Amino acid sequence: MATFVSAFNELPLENLVRQSLETTPDGVRSAIVNPAPDLKDFCALISPTAGNQLEMLSRRSQQLTQQRFGKVLRFFAPLYVSNECINNCKYCGFSRDNPIFRLTLSAEEVRTEARELKLSGFRNILLVAGEHPKFISNGYLAECVRVAAEEVPGVSLEVGPMECDDYQPLVAAGAEGLVVYQESYERQIYQVVHTAGPKRDFDWRLETPERAYEAGFRRIGIGALFGLSDWRYEAIALAAHARYLLNKCWRAQLTISLPRLRPCAGDFEPLTILSDRHLVQLVCAFRILLPDVGLVLSTREPEKLRNGLFPLGITMISAGSHTEPGGYTGAGQQNLHVTEKGRMMPLPETETPGRASATGQFQIADERSPEEVAQYVRKLGYEPVWKDWDPAFSSAN
Ligand code: SF4
């Protein structure tokens, strides 16, 4: 069966980037007012020329967002269940060669974390894990989903890509959403930054959202990690991917994330820069191209920028996030010592007085508590929404 890979291979991405760079002011104006914008309009919206008309873009984006979504912002929290991983992704703190403290929470520890998040108001949780075959073969992830779904109505997953058959038990356990970022749509860069492990297979990853949909997930999240390749190239490919999925996986709700690289273990330096201003332009361009798609903004971005972006086109935000397993309650904390090879290993309880948390995936930038963010959202005149999914919606499909 044809997948996005064939469509992707046909995309004239370099030409589209060139067209974007050559956009005229007229091209920008017609893209903004086009009631049915296409990929060429999107190229105009992310052009340097459109960058000089950011106010006009912002107004259109805000207007479309309020029309389609109302003045609400949906809250979710990532819950990291494990930082074990068999891949080496140069930009990630969990890369298998990084000498960090690895921890996989037990299902009961996952429940403890989910309860804590529930106390903070969250009803929508994203379970995050590195990639490891044992998570599937021993039913670990399905058990994590089951306990989290007993605590909150909305459970999604951000885990290593799987076969459709391996996704089905996760859907049956109560997961309704799957998030998978392509990271980079530029094949060469993809190979450079993914140096070992199954993640090196670009096409397998690119087809993941379609396998997830076939398995029964009804929310699908995609994204690119900005800081690896030319941002316009990544954005155009991501926009094409989103349009393809909206057509093919039409019963699913689609969200798009635009994460930028953050400091992490391994000290990887971004290869390219997406500036704050360009990130704002990108959010507006995606909103104008895809008025009904959810746009996600995480705590990777600093408070001031997030505050400015909330009313412009964003529909879903995280708050008070931790990127280490056990980060919300201290679940799984252990005494540690450093081995000769520089790895951190647990010590018996009696040997050291201090206890350490597992290492996080990256540093967050907005450190406000969920309630502080919610207060700001209310001050803006928006309603913070904690619950936007109920398992009853699935049975109605
Ligand atoms: S990005 Fe994902 S797959 Fe890559 S090392 Fe990090 S956790 Fe593992």
Write a compact overview of the structure shown.
This protein has 397 residues and is of the alpha/beta class. Strand 8 (253-257), helix 15 and strand 9 form a beta-alpha-beta unit. The chain is 42% helix and 14% strand.
Description of the structure:
The protein is α/β, with parallel strands linked by helices and 397 residues long. Helix content is 42%, strand content 14%. Helix 3 crosses helix 4. It is globular. The protein starts with a helix and ends with a helix. The chain binds iron/sulfur cluster.
Largest sheet: 8 strands, parallel, barrel
Strand content: 5-15%
Q: What's the total number of strands?
A: 13
List all distinct small molecules, including ions and cofactors, that are bound in this structure. Answer: iron/sulfur cluster
Q: Which word captures the global form?
A: globular
Supply the number of helical segments: 18
Backbone structural class:
alpha/beta
Widest sheet, order of strands = 1-3-4-5-7-8-9-10
Cα radius of gyration in angstroms = 21 Å
Residue stretches low in confidence (pLDDT < 50, at least 5 long) are none
Percent range of helical residues: 40-55%
Report the end-to-end length measured between terminal Cα atoms: 24 Å
Report the average pLDDT across residues: 93
